[in-house]
Design goal:
Leucine-rich repeat, LRR (right-handed beta-alpha superhelix), 17% strand, 2 domains
């Protein structure tokens, strides 16, 4: 085998090795979403998502999942401790367990508007030390526990 043929074979093998890793990155972006690892932003609009994805980049800083079918936020939030902006407006959210946002210490904006949230416990927003904007407009809030916003010291 000539040196040129060996070089071509090595180049072909390297490109095959690199292909699965780039495909794996693409596979982490749910259908109907736009995922950008450079800007650390994911936007999922007008989709059929019914749960918060857990396979996104854990360094994600901006997550927008509007107009989907998400009903609850659960422990999946723990995977996104670097979030600065979260928009879950126009979903079907009705349940936000205590400490839902315990890992989002850097989150500054949280948009939960136009969902079906009926009550919020005084432990739901624990951990949101940096939160300045909270949008709950258009929900079915009929009960707010005492001190529900007490830990949100930077809220404007």
């Amino acid at each position: 085998m000539t040196p040129l043929a060996i070089y071509a074979c090595l180049l072909a093998m390297l490109s095959l090795l690199a292909a699965p890793s780039s495909q794996a990155l693409l596979a982490n972006c749910p259908l109907g979403c736009s995922c950008d690892d450079d800007t650390l932003e994911v936007i999922c609009g007008e989709g059929g998502l019914d749960v918060l994805p857990i396979v996104l980049n854990p360094s994600l800083q901006r997550l927008v999942i509007k107009n989907n079918k998400i009903k609850t936020i659960d422990s999946s939030m723990q995977f996104y401790a670097e979030l600065r902006f979260l928009d879950l407006s126009y979903n079907h959210l009705f349940n936000m367990p205590p400490r839902t946002f315990a890992y989002q210490k850097k989150l500054t904006e949280l948009h939960l508007n136009h969902n079906k949230v009926g009550s919020i416990s005084n432990k739901t927003f624990l951990g949101l030390d940096s939160l300045t904007i909270l949008n709950l407009r258009g929900n079915f809030l009929d009960e707010l526990s005492d001190g529900v916003f007490g830990g949100l010291k930077k809220l404007e």
